[in-house]
Amino acid sequence: MTMITAHSGSDNMGENSWTFIRFCLDRQLCFEVDVRQQTDGTLILAHDRQEVVPESVTLEQVFQAVANEKTTMTINCDLKEEGLEMAVFSLAQTYQIWTQIVLSGYVRVSWAAIWGKHIFYNIENQFEGKKLGDITEADLIETLQELAYQSVQIVNIHEGWLTELAREVGQQLGLTFSVWTVNELETIEYLASCGVYNITSRCAWAYLLWKKGAKSHAEILESQASLS
């Protein structure tokens, strides 16, 4: 079954906010947070460095809440800086929730051979120095082959890059995909039917409500508001 992950700020919540974290915890919804590190070593939730403020949520606060409430959802830590892998791993081990943690973003490919499906490896990391608009399907296919050789199991890829050929080649190589950021309900449904491992969306809860029988996106948003 395809995992549905709430992009940071999904469903009209504030990005990397405690409101967003609480929203996901209350609904047992897998979620993504952006992670940076302060000069004192504190792991903080922020997409950009300038977003860090004294009241920013720390990753430890998130992990502590997950551990205390004995939740089982997966948390995708999107690393916005290089070299944070061990810091996140150690913190997750402290709270005994490493089994629920995924790392994406700036992750060294060598960790894939060690941590397997804990790594959603961002394929664009392999295209450093290239303009993303210049990447061809042939480039993607060649890179998928390289990643399979380097023991990557799950490739984190933009929905626009996951062509039918790329998906077929990935399957032949033993790869599966985490697709971001998919915000059309019908597209989420289609990709789930294709058997991708994960779909990250800004309307994750809306999609799950839609699957339960809501008739329209407007109805979903109305239902969501009543639950918030």
Automatic annotation (TrEMBL):
Database matches in InterPro entries: PLC-like_Pdiesterase_TIM-brl
Protein name per UniProt: Glycerophosphodiester phosphodiesterase
The species this protein was found in: Enterococcus avium
Superkingdom, natural source: Bacteria
